[in-house]
């Protein structure tokens, strides 16, 4: 699931998508990777990586990465996870 670090609404959207996935899969242990994209937009960041990391890894037990498709940061790692 990918959200944009400069768009809090996109983070809310992946929360809803995650719930839908878990409902359809009927398995709370479904592996999901959450990716915060557009980290190249430093001055426009509106979503804290610390807040998302806490939610994703501690509460949801999923993998969290941040990436920049523009700068090719963690793009391949996202697919490896």
Automatic annotation (TrEMBL):
It is a lipid-anchor. It comes from the Eukaryota. One of its GO terms (molecular function) is GTP binding. Its main location: membrane. The keyword Ion transport does not apply. Keywords: Cell membrane, GTP-binding, Lipoprotein, Membrane, Methylation, Nucleotide-binding. InterPro entries: P-loop_NTPase, Small_GTPase, Small_GTPase_RasD. PANTHER family: GTP-BINDING PROTEIN DI-RAS2 (PTHR46149:SF7), MIP08469P (PTHR46149). This is Uncharacterized protein.
């Amino acid at each position: 699931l990918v959200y944009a670090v400069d768009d809090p609404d996109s983070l809310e959207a992946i929360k809803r998508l995650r719930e839908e996935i878990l409902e359809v899969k009927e398995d709370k242990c479904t592996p999901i990777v959450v990716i915060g994209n557009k980290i190249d937009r430093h001055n426009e960041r509106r979503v804290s990586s610390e807040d998302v990391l806490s939610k994703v890894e501690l509460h949801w037990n999923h993998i969290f990465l941040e990436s920049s498709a523009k700068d090719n940061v963690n793009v391949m790692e996202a697919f490896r996870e």
